[in-house]
Design brief:
12 helices, 269 residues, 83% helix, globular, mainly alpha, ABC transporter involved in vitamin B12 uptake, BtuC
Amino acid sequence: MFDDFFVRALVAGLGVALVAGPLGCFVVWRRLSYFGDTLAHSALLGVSLAVFLEVNTMVSVFIVCVGISLLLLFLQKGGGLASDALLGLLSHSALALGLVAIAFMTWVRIDLTALLFGDILSVSKSDLVIVWVGAFIVIGALMLIWRQLFAATVNEELARAEGMNPDRVNIIFMLLMALVIAISMKIVGVLLITALLIIPAATARRLVSNPEQMAVYSAILGMIAVGGGLFGSLAWDTPSGPSIVVTALLLFILTLFPVLRMLSSKREG
């Protein structure tokens, strides 16, 4: 039998993987990995504000991520800088502000390692409730806006011509991203959240032929990565968050071998 803390960690990780996979598909399709990094880095600023204001950390991280997303939209409309430059500016600025703010709060001891790389083994029962409630909200919202969000991803102008509102679904997508990052931070940490969003989706992309299958496969692969990472962490006494990401990476590498064999057979032919 496993200890309660390990079971809680496993259940929480599965809940995060369930939503990170499908949402990560849109991150991959839209080439928004840097946007995911920006929101993830801004989570540290949310943590520092939560400590200073003595409010719930997940709520503070969510609000900060939403604020960064809206600021990005505002700056993009203002023009003058390319999107990648704006993302870099916001990402590193938010991370630096968070670290400086934490340094000033000398009366509080904050485990930066846990914030950066996660502390899934410390998940509590209340954290489980937040993770799974957030997961159901994200999955439900994705199901409602799937068609419009996918259409806007493929061709935004065509989506407008068909009477859809890409701006609205893009904002909803950003809100969902902020929510997933808020509930994922304790699982894999600020620096590894984007990996959990991208790697399972990138792996699933190599195995399927349609978007719906990719969303399902990415969720399943994310769950396998969580389970494998946690059991590997237990067996070899490695950090849990990085172990989950390494397991996801190994799954991606496994999908490369059929491609390599196909390429070699073509060269021989």
